Amino acid sequence: MFALRSAARLSLRPSTVVASPVLRPMASRMYHEKVIDHYERPRNVGSLDKNDQHVGSGLVGAPACGDVMKLQIKVGEDGIISDVKFKTFGCGSAIASSSYMTERVLGMTLEQAGAIKNTEIAKELCLPPVKLHCSMLAEDAIKAAINDYKKKRLTTGSKKAGHIDVALNDKTGETTATAVVN
Question: Which residues form the NIF system FeS cluster assembly NifU N-terminal domain (predicted)?
Fold first, then answer.
């Protein structure tokens, strides 16, 4: 009976079993070593200042299982992701997917990061079909963070995101408008 309860707990709270050396073999049959590695040693956990114009935030969730993922990117003036943080409330696969995504997108352009598909994450972490929604959360989170960043940049009038230059010629009284999109 104890083994059955422990196995049931693993699916709900992986840390209960993963942290226990006695039950570790059971955990390794349910989670791939890559998932366990990212779960036990998550990379880039934390938060960035959401009010920073260079930071984009994505918050997504899976109602079916209750997983919630926040992923934030900081983009340099060169358009490269210079920092990335995450906070995830969920199973080991959701945490591992978040952690892996942060490692993957660091140093990428927004276009490169936005092109990452959940199937790539699932393949890299060896996620079983029942956990594919965790990799989908990571894909949705990076896309939401990129969209938030772009939206902020448009509203702040940054020339990096796109703007309209309006000029009034004092001599002729003519107004010219030039749309610039980067």
Answer: 30-154
